[in-house]
Amino acid sequence: MKKVILAGLTAAVMSSTAMASDVTGYTAPVSGQAATAAGVDGNFQALISAINDNNARIAALEAQVAASQSKDVTGKTYLYRDLGLIFAAHRYGTNTAFDATEPDAVPDGYARAGYYMGAYTVTFNADHTLTMTGQDTDVEMAVNASSDISQQKAPASGSGTWTQSGNTLTIDLGDGPVNFEVTPGAQMIAGYTNSDPTVTFDYNDGTNGGSGGTGDRYTHEYEVNMGYGILQQ
After folding, report:
1. Contact assessment for residue 92 and residue 210, using Cβ atoms and an 8 Å cutoff
2. Spatial distance between the Cα atoms of 141 and 150, rounded to a whole number of angstroms
3. How many Å separate Cα 88 from the centre of its chain?
């Protein structure tokens, strides 16, 4: 990214709009002749004009540099892609005390693995809301007595909120904040999240511990997600 920025600045400096202008309208004094007020004033005006012109060119170049370094995503739209992986184990039983080593503790247990992909257009509005539209693809494989693979593709849309501090962009779509890094010029956003394997327990409450019940059930799940967005020009 640094090479891209340096290349852009070099091009800006070498462009005709960024080059310093020559002093024009200057009249050199003639040896032996007295300087006149009009002649001196004319030379000062030529210098002032050249200085003002160069100041405007420098200000324009500084604005280009500031824009290339700004990481503000306000009003910008990104083409966003993400990929997630999920691994989970589900166990059910009817024991009054949980013991994963007992074979009859998990008669209806199963495992599943899958991935999901998303392709969206995301716009960061000035009021710190965001809108997104695109498509989700989910593929999951369940391993149990009746193993199967499911696939689903569906249009997706949503909204949320965002905040930004420096190069850290925080997005919340309603299920908790996720942080992204913003590159110089706000050309790209990128994020990575992962959940430590989470385990939830439900001990026997007298109901069936099989699918749909709550007796001696536990779920062990791990998920990772990677996503990036490229600024839409």
Report:
1. yes
2. 6
3. 27
DSSP, collapsed to helix, strand or coil, labels residue 138 as strand
The Cα–Cα gap between 152 and 1 comes to: 37
Q: How far apart are CA 134 and CA 213, in angstroms?
A: 36
Distance, CA of 46 to CA of 51 (rounded, Å): 9
Place of tokens 């299920």: 175
Say what the pTM is.
Answer: 0.59
Tell me: the pLDDT tens digits for 80-106?
999 999 888 776 554 444 444 444 334
**Amino acid symbol at 98:** F
Four-CA torsion 224, 135, 191, 182, nearest 10 degrees: 180
- Give the span between the Cα atoms of 224 and 179, in whole angstroms: 14
Closest by CA to 216, choosing from 67, 65, 52, 106, is 106
- Sign of the Cα torsion 122, 124, 125, 131 reads positive
